[in-house]
Amino acid sequence: MIRLFKHYISTAVAALAAVEFLLLLISAELGRVLRAWPMGTTAEPIIYHVPQTLSFAVVGYLAMAGVGMYQVEALTSGRVATGRLIVATSLSILFVAVLSFIYPELKLWRSTLLASMAVAFALILGLRVALRGRLLGSPVFRRRVLVLGAGPRAARLAEIATQPSANFTIVAYIAMNDSDIHVPEAVDRSAIDALVDRVRVEGITQVVLALEERRNALPLAELVRVKTLGVEVSDLSSFLERETGRVDLESVSPSWLIFSDGFSAGRRISSIAKRMFDLLVSLLLLLISAPLVILGALAVKLESPGPAFFRQQRVGRFGELFDVVKLRSMRQDAEAAGQKWAEKDDPRITRVGRFIRQVRIDELPQVWSVLKGDMSFVGPRPEIPKFVADLETRINYYAERHMVKPGITGWAQINYPYGASVEDARHKLEYDLYYVKNYSPFLDLLIILQTMRVLLWPEGVR
Prior knowledge:
Structural class: alpha/beta
Distance between the termini: 35 Å
Radius of gyration: 25 Å
Number of domains: 3
Strand content: 5-15%
Largest sheet: 5 strands, parallel
Oligomer: single chain
Shape: globular
């Protein structure tokens, strides 16, 4: 795993992304060669158009990341990868054209742009076909892990290790005075003379502590030798956070939250930069989206009686209440029987409401809340006070999600489908806590890019 600005990225995915960025650079140059060849001329050396080449590659790469080309489903399925690459290529052509209009010095001739995109599509698709889903499972990129423990915690690791997205291979489990063995293949600690020798012989790169009870069970002297050997030693909570991109509520403890790194969202420079971004983009979006919001409001008004806009109180940063405004997608009397989560095929949703939810137009008025400072573009979704009061009593650490501003999109929104139960709220909290703990401008950029995928393929909309 590679750590970028407190966020972990799979080594295999990072390597693939680097190779594909290089292919985009090569494609930009080959496009010029293909354009010049029919005319009997020679393309200028690359030194004369470095900015155009870089802009082509950056736009293409961002489009690919945005549509989910580096998600598990696109890395393991050729059909999904092909479909998303087609969308990414189309978006890239549009974005490069817009960029050329804004900055004429970055202009690419239409024929050059089309040729470069065609080459890029062929090269990247050829690479994905050649890999055929084997990238994530390659032992070259997987860490070799030794697990200390054979109880329920170790069994959870065994389950995660079988998933296609796993970045590790469990070489062995060692039962350390575990009273209840859940991993049959575990080796008893008494059968191993020296832990450090086992680590060296097996080529272990990481040891994970998955003990049910640590008291008098940790071989501290041997773990010190393993650590000084250059092998990483991790507790279960830290390991799961890195592997899954969420804070695992089943294994986490107050002491881990207190002493682990992270929770630096209050840093002044990052906060100022985040607020400046929110101000500039919200002003721009309000201007651009105004006609769309007006049309949506007219459609809502014509279909059903009642106001076009829906105002509702939500919980913001530090538990402060604010009003959020959305285009009304439900009947006017939708909350006559009390507030509740939206369900699949919810009868309260109108026909126009279902459409504007599907394309996320109903969310656009929330940009006003971003401009006012009640919300940010990226952060945990703001919840209704009634739901928050209930969830705080039923889910540990739920209040901690309110240590940052709520957002229109967030880490939970791009990683977990729509939630309509306490269990769903618990899973989404794990992603929200990961965001609060590991916030950085880089993570915000990643979430904004991935939101494009959610908008294009809105499987979780209700």
